[in-house]
Every structure is written in C-alpha cells, then in structure tokens.
Input
Amino acid sequence: MTFSIHTGKRCISQLLCLCVLIVMGQGTTAETLTDLYETRSLVPAQTASVRAQAAKESLLSVLVKVSGRQSLDQNLFVQQALKSAQDYVLQFSYESTDERIESDDGGSLPATTLLLKFSSQSIETLLREAGLPLWPANRPAVLVWLVADDARQGRYTVSEPQVYEQLSLTADERGLPLIRPLFDLQDQIALDPEALWNLDEDTIRAASERYAADAVFVGRYTEFSNGRWRGDWRLSHKSGTTLFQIDAASLEELLSDGIHQATGRFAELFGIVPSRTGTVPVYAEVSGVELFANYKQVLDYLDGLDMVRRAELLQIEKDKLTFSLGIEGGLPLLQDTIALDKVLLGGADNTQHRLPGNRYIPLGFKENPLQYRWSARR
Output
C-alpha cells in the first residue's frame, strides 16, 4: 500500500506575471539560513523502512537547496548517494501532529512529523565528488512586490497572503529568503500600482529602502483569454542583467518557475564550483584590527568562508593584517561574498594597479592585495 500526503490546493485568483528582479546596490540584509541541512516531513509510521524512504526524498531536497541546482536526478553520484541516504543523516527525531496521511484506498492514518538533520560535511563532500556547486548559507534577502491588471478591478497592488504563500513554498524549497511588504499606509503612499506597473525603478527603490533588502522582486501580471499565463522576467545585478520569459498553464506554475529562474541565477553568482586544479592564492589586507580578539574574529571569519580552503596570516603591521587565502570559485565570487556578509568593508583601492608601459598588477596579487577594513558593527 502506498501513501500520499493530502494537503489540499490553495486557490490563487486573478494573476499572470511579468516579473522584474531589481537587485539593490546598497542592500544590507543578507540572511544566513540555518536550516539548509534540515527537513521536516509527514510519515505514516516510525519504522526503519518509512524513515529510509523519507531520508531519500529529504536528501534530494537538501542537495537542491545547498547546490542551487533544480534537477539533480541524473547525476550518477547523487543517484548512488540516494541509495544510502541514511548514511548522510546526522540525527533524527519525531514530533506528534494532528495531521493525517491519506492512503490510496481512501482511508487515512494519523501522521507523525519526522525531523532529519543531515551532515553538512558529508553533503559538501558529496557535492565535490559530484562536481556540483556549493551555495553558502548566507543568501540575499528578496523583497517581493506584485501588481495585477484585472478587467474588473483595473491595476492594483497584490497583497493577498495566499499569493505570497505560493511564492514562499517554492522559495523555501530552493533556500531563497523572501520578504513580504507590510502593505501599510507608508507603502501605499510611497508606491502606487501605476509605478509598479511601469517598473519605475527610482520609485520602487525609494519605497523599498525601509526593508533594507538585498534584492527587490517586482511582478506585474494579467491573464490571457485562452487561460494561459505568461511572465517576462528581468534579473538586474551589478554583474549584468538576465531576461527570461515563462509561459504556464496556471499562476502557481508561473510563480514557481519564476522563483526557480531567479534562484538559479543567484546560485550561479554565489555558488562555489569545486576546483579540479586546487586552490588559487589571493592576498588581502584588513585594517582597523586593534585588539587581539578582533584579530581572531577576522581570521575565523576568513577561514570560515566556504570558498576559502586555507587562510594564512602573513604579516601584522600596527592595525593591519595581511593574509594569503587559498580560494575556490574565483576572485569576483570572493569579493561578492564578502560584500554580501558586510563583515569586512571594502576599500577604495580594490582596483588594478597600473605600472609603466601599460602594465598592470592584477587585484589580489601580493603586490596589490584586496583592501578591507574590519567592521566594528559585529
């Protein structure tokens, strides 16, 4: 006998989206996710066989979150790991619940919540073996605005909780933090539906500043007469702009695909791809380190970055420390990661140095290290 979890369908009315993702240059609210390696699922019994099946499904969902990749079923290393999914489980526990699981024969059984916590070290090793990226837990927080164009109501700002629940379902699956606006009087004054529909970047940016988000996700939508939904999306970031279109049979599908596309782009930007040739040395100077406790914090921070495989202190000069960092993923990713964390403040000298004869010293070399200042706001 097989069982399926009965959740019911959420009804979402009146939508199609043209969605725009505008990443704010001065964002201040990156969010460190603490549950990337944990799952919760309803099970019909507390038996080893049921737990083994749940571990298999949960391991796949964790790998999707941590790698930033949507489809992993075809990876041979992942397929092999799923056969022994419980080997990656660090601990498990059960919680009682009032929910029930519906079986194929029309009956139902009382459900129990199974909590699984996977080993981050084992997951990272698997990703390396599989040649898959590692997307660190410190991820951009995304503020979402939606505006609809309806034949009966005209254009209006969408605030229905069920719409944001749909977005959050997919965002949770992919490990992307979302922020829902308050929709209070201040929001209504700062950002009207026409400004949203016209994608007025200045107005949207000003209205979004109160939320201190790293990114702002704006969607405008309507529905075609044939019942199909279409979304045109734009993802703007300091690294460039990505455009994509989505046609879908339902709003739920359209919103989910949009989140998948946006999440995939962030994973490309911040995901660490394992190097087959070893680490690359990068030099960095950190000033403003006046206390021994600060020195230890700086070293622990750099050494704790997922893309840094080795952090070595080379020199101490007054309040300035010089480090040699063995990194994976490349210099731009290191700079983006540090900027997202806001633990070290970037200096104005993070550029290439020109030498006579139109020669340059590349950034990150020993003669031209990255320049940062220790942030006292810890």
Summary: The longest helix spans residues 48-67. Confidence is low (pLDDT under 50) at residues 1-19, 22-28.
